[in-house]
Amino acid sequence: MKILHNLIKFRSHIILTLIALTLAFTSVCIYNHKYDRICKIINSSNEDLTVEGKITSFPERHDDGKISFTIRITDCSSTSLLNTGVSVSVKESDVMPEKGDNVQFCGALTLAKSVGNEGGFDYKNYMKSLDVAALCYVDSAKFEKVDSPLKPIYKIRSNFNESCDRYILKASSGLTKAIITGDRGGILPKDESAFKSAGIYHIVAISGLHLNIFMCAIFFFISKLKIKRAKKAIISLIASGFVGLFVLIFTGFGVSVIRAFIMMLILGAAAVVPRDYNAKNALVVSGFVIVILMPYCAYSVAMWLSLLSTLGVLFGIDIISHFKSAYKFPLLTDNYVGNTIVISAMTTLTTLPITSIAFGYVPLYSWIANSAVLPVMGFFMALGIFFAFATSLLPGVVAQIFGYALSAMGKYVIKIAHIVESLPMSTINIYPQALLWTGFLLLFAVAGIYIIRKSSLKTLIITSLIFVIAGVGFLVYNVSDKGIEITFVDVGQGDCAIIQCDGSDFMIDCGSQNEQDYVASTVESVLRHKNIRKLDAVIVSHYHKDHVNGLCDIIEKGKVKNLLLPKNYDITEREARENYEKLLESCAKSATKITYVQKGDSITTKNGLTMDIIYPANDVFLGNNNMSMVTKVRYGDFSAMFYGDCEEEALENCLVQDVECNVIKIPHHGAKNALSDMLAQKSGAEVAIASCSKYNIYGHPAPETVESFEKSGCKVYKTFESGAIKIKADKNGKMTIDTMR
């Protein structure tokens, strides 16, 4: 009878799981259908719309004065867009709105871009995870204040953010706001990179730790009440619900807090029933509830990291308990360091599928960083929570004292992150291949089940070895295709091309009119995805920022062996002179070798790749655009021409030489040029690339220039339309072309 009872119980679990899976799958499918329909409507309309909506996020004011927030459309000149989520950016506004206010504006709705580069950030998918279907950029907007019972909580948050900027050092202020409110906008880019590399990025994500702090306080006070246990459980459940709602509202309903809130309610309900609480079951239930009720969260990296990291913690606790009961191994069970190492390792492993996709690497020393940081995080967060209330209720001197303490804690956490990031091999790059990826996950699942379920030391060792071997194979695996591959990276209004040929890696230019940090992170993600740890050489065409402003950071990280620079440039131009000096400083910091090249110089690799400098000669002195270094890349019968920002004077000198090629990077981002017809005809190129931004102020690429190349039978690709353009070719000149969009 017992066996039959267990069988029925097991079968009921399967049925409930299948029902939950069906509901979740159906919910996501319905959401995708609605989302795609909205995207088609937005994509088919280019006209300005009059929109009214309710602000659903906490508005942010940026350094340039712009205000950004998300809304839910309540009224619109296109009724089919009602209840659509829109991310709005207002150029100028004297009024700072609050969450819950109404807004009215007129503007064109656009769709967010999908990922433009290999390993890059998929902005469209990120917007989808927030249930936002459109973007809108407007010059001005009208705001209407709305009274709401939630406004006092919003006020506490607003006061907290202002006080962070007033009483806490800048770097620590951004970190404090991130861990308390989930607003990561104030974290310095270099600190954010260090958190990721050190494996402690989870500390800037809103988690259940907020609720744990409040729960501990609630349980402590309720435990002192002289009432029956059942009543204590009911009071705890009610109090926890109210506190959980407050934290949810204060943090903006972050998905990690929602997960923790659901688990907390299950825990409270289990105490009331009473019934045993199983944290793993509660975790699974919370995941299903979130996806069923909020299907867009299925695309949220934050949700999956929250679920998997919590699972890793639970697995780590199980392993520690297993060792403690079975082997009495004090090194792992009776000290904080051992426990932290086990839990950190399991958290890293369980989140590996998500971190590898989202960040492209695994932090090797996360256990060190977590061991040093986690002991202070509870105090840091508790102090931050008290600081949030102190800024609204207590005198400024009290807030200032809290500010000193938070500044010190923040500096400590940031310092630990940078120290761990600077360690040799602090991260291991991951380049998943479909077959190996699937095999690794299966082996991981098998190993995890055996480690948790089996008490045999022999089984534990064997499965652990299998997992380690599979993991090492997964991490180092990389497939290198034969032939040449040129990737024109989408860096906005700028230039960057990565050239790979049978183990040799080169880059021509690395810059954009966009922010330097954006360019560096974009190119780094592409290099990581391509398994390029160090470039053999980087060629700089000239020293304008849209060709070099992302290069210094990459050089200083030791990712460039040789830097090839133009022999001459116009030193009277301030921008060029400053960028040149920055490159020299970066090379000095990283021991990158500098070589000055000119017309007639050439680079040849053992695998048959040749790069010829065909312009300028040493005696050419023109403006910096017209002194752009022109490079011809040859591999067998295949060739490609890179013209930098050459204009008419420079092109006249180039056209008297051999400029025939299969692929041409159109000079000066496709600017209007009187020699375009001649260049298109003489090059005989099959493919032409215009590297530029859709919203550039120069009108690149000029319609006349595009028309010149198309008339010659050349296929023109624009990076803002196609994303990154990847061209592969063999020595016979046979090409294949892939685009990211």
What does this protein look like?
With 741 residues, this protein is of the alpha/beta class. The protein is built from 25 helices and 24 strands. The strands form 4 sheets. It has an 8-stranded mixed sheet with strand order 15-14-13-12-11-10-23-24. Strands 1, 2, 3, 4, 5, 6 and 7 form a 7-stranded mixed sheet that branches. A 7-stranded mixed sheet has the order 16-17-18-19-20-21-22. β2 and β3 (67-76) form a beta hairpin. α9 (279-293) runs antiparallel to α10. The longest helix is centred in the first third of the chain and has 42 residues, at 2-43. It starts with a helix and ends with a strand.
Q: Structural class, from helix and strand content?
A: alpha/beta
SS summary, helix count? 25
Which whole number gives the mean pLDDT?
81
Q: What is the distance, rounded to the nearest whole angstrom, between the alpha carbons of the first and last residues?
A: 60 Å
Tell how many strands the DSSP assignment holds: 24
Radius of gyration: 29 Å
**Strand order, sheet with most strands:** 15-14-13-12-11-10-23-24
Percentage of residues in strands: 15-25%
- Low-pLDDT runs: 477-481
Largest sheet: 8 strands, mixed
Please summarize what this structure is.
With 741 residues, the protein is α/β, with parallel strands linked by helices.
Task: Write a concise keyword list for the protein shown above.
single chain, 741 residues, alpha/beta, seven-stranded mixed sheet
Itemize the secondary structure elements and their pairings.
Blueprint lengths: L1 H42 L5 E7 L4 E2 L5 E10 L8 E6 L11 E6 L15 H7 L4 E5 L3 E3 L6 H17 L2 H12 L7 H10 L10 H15 L5 H23 L3 H18 L6 H15 L7 H26 L3 H4 L2 H15 L1 H7 L2 E3 L2 H28 L2 H27 L4 E3 L4 H20 L3 H20 L7 E5 L5 E8 L2 E9 L3 H14 L7 E3 L5 H4 L2 H6 L5 E5 L7 H17 L2 E5 L4 E3 L4 E7 L14 E6 L2 E5 L5 H7 L8 E3 L10 H8 L3 E4 L12 H9 L3 E4 H4 L2 E5 L5 E5 L2
Parallel strand pairs: 4-6, 12-13, 13-14, 14-15, 19-20, 20-21, 21-22
Antiparallel strand pairs: 1-3, 1-5, 2-3, 3-4, 5-7, 8-9, 10-11, 10-23, 11-12, 16-17, 17-18, 18-19, 23-24
Helix pairs in contact: 1-9, 3-4, 3-7, 3-14, 4-15, 5-15, 6-7, 7-8, 8-9, 9-10, 10-12, 12-14, 14-15, 16-17, 23-24
